[in-house]
C-alpha cells in the first residue's frame, strides 16, 4: 500500500499541474472506484464538481483530496494498488483504469488506475479540522476528521491538539507492540509496513516491544528516525517495489527501494552489524528486523 512518502510524491506531482483547471466531466468505469460518504454521488448528472475549479491538492497521512472553488472536495485513497496518472490526450488507457476526469481546455486527463480495486474516489463535504494549526481555521473532508495528523504535520510544531511531546506521551501510554501503534492511523497517520520497519531499524527498536516499556528518549529517537526516513524517501519519489503497483503521476517509479535497510531484506546482512535480516509474522503481515541491533528486551 502506498504510504506517506508515496502519497506526498503524488500530491506534489498533481500540485504542479492541477490548480486552476476546471473539471469538464467525471467518468466512473468501475463500481468499486467510488464511495458515497457525506457528499453527492460522483455518478450524478447534477454532480457539483462538474465545472468546479481546482484550488489545491492536499494530503493527510495516506489520504489525498482536491479542494475546489466550491464547498466540496474530491477525496482520493490509493488503497493497495491505486495510481493517479496525468497522461496527455489523446492517450491509450490502462486495462485497470477505474475513473477518468476531463478538464476544460486541458491537454491532460486525470486517470485513477487500480488493479486490486481497494482504492476509491469520493465527493465530500468539508468540515472544521479538529487538529487545526494554531491561529487558523482549516477545513478538511468530513471522512478524514478521525485520521490523526501525520508525522510531517506534527513536526511542524504548531498543531493545536498534537505536538511531538503529546504524540510521545500518547505512544508510551499504550501497552500494545510499538509497531502496531505506528500502524494505527488514529495515533499518527501515514505510516505503513515499509516505513515502520525502516524507522524501527534505524532507531534500534524491536517491533514487538510494548510501547509503555519504551523511554521517552527512545520514542523521541524513533520519531526522529521515522521522519528522516520518510523525508529521504520523498526526495527520490517514494518506494516502488517489484510489483510496480505504485508509480508516480508520470508513470515513473520511485527509487527508495535501493536504500531500504530492513523491509524486504530478509536473508541479507544488516548494514550496521552484518547479522542476517529476519522476517517475522506480525499482524497478518511481515516485520523485517535485525535481531542483533533490535533486541526484544
What does this structure look like?
The chain is an alpha+beta fold and 297 residues long. The chain is globular. Strand 2 and strand 3 form a beta hairpin. The model has no long low-confidence stretch (mean pLDDT 92). The strands form 3 sheets. The chain has a 5-stranded antiparallel β-sheet, covered by helices on one side. The chain has a 4-stranded antiparallel β-sheet with strand order 1-6-7-5, with no helix packed on it. The protein has 6 helices and 11 strands. The protein has 2 domains: 4-144, MutM-like, N-terminal (N-terminal domain of MutM-like DNA repair proteins); 151-289, Helicase, Ruva Protein, domain 3.
Q: What is this structure, in a nutshell?
A:
By secondary structure, the protein is an alpha+beta fold. It has 6 helices and 11 strands. It has 2 domains: 141 residues, MutM-like, N-terminal (N-terminal domain of MutM-like DNA repair proteins); 139 residues, Helicase, Ruva Protein, domain 3 (Orthogonal Bundle).
Amino acid at each position: 500500500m502506498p504510504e506517506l512518502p508515496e502519497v506526498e510524491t503524488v500530491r506534489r506531482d498533481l500540485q504542479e499541474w492541477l490548480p486552476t483547471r476546471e473539471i469538464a466531466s467525471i467518468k466512473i468505469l468501475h463500481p468499486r472506484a467510488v464511495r458515497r460518504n457525506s457528499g453527492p454521488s460522483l455518478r450524478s448528472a447534477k454532480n457539483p464538481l462538474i465545472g468546479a475549479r481546482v484550488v489545491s491538492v492536499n494530503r493527510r497521512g495516506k489520504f489525498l483530496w482536491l479542494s475546489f472553488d466550491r464547498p466540496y472536495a474530491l477525496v482520493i485513497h490509493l488503497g493497495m494498488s491505486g495510481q493517479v496518472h496525468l497522461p496527455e490526450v489523446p492517450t491509450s488507457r490502462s486495462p485497470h483504469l477505474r475513473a477518468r476526469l476531463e478538464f476544460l481546455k486541458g491537454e491532460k486527463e486525470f486517470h485513477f488506475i487500480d488493479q486490486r480495486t481497494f482504492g476509491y474516489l469520493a465527493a465530500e463535504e468539508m468540515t472544521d479540522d479538529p487538529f487545526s494549526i494554531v491561529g487558523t481555521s482549516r477545513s478538511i473532508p468530513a471522512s478524514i476528521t478521525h485520521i490523526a495528523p501525520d508525522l510531517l504535520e506534527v513536526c511542524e510544531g504548531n498543531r493545536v491538539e498534537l505536538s511531538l511531546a503529546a504524540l510521545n506521551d500518547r505512544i508510551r501510554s499504550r501497552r500494545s507492540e510499538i509497531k502496531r501503534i505506528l500502524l494505527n492511523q488514529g495515533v499518527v497517520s501515514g505510516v505503513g509496513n515499509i516505513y515502520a520497519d525502516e524507522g524501527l531499524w534505524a532507531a534500534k527498536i524491536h517491533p514487538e516491544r510494548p510501547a509503555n516499556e519504551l523511554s521517552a528518549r527512545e520514542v523521541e529517537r524513533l520519531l526522529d528516525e521515522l521522519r528522516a526516513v520518510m523525508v529521504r524517501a520523498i526526495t527520490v519519489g517514494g518506494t516502488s517495489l517489484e510489483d510496480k503497483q505504485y508509480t508516480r503521476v508520470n508513470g515513473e517509479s520511485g527509487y527508495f527501494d535501493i536504500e531500504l535497510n530492513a523491509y524486504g531484506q530478509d536473508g541479507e546482512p544488516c548494514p550496521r552489524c552484518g547479522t542476517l535480516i529476519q522476517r517475522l509474522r506480525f499482524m497478518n503481515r511481515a516485520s523485517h528486523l535485525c535481531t542483533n541491533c533490535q533486541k526484544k528486551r
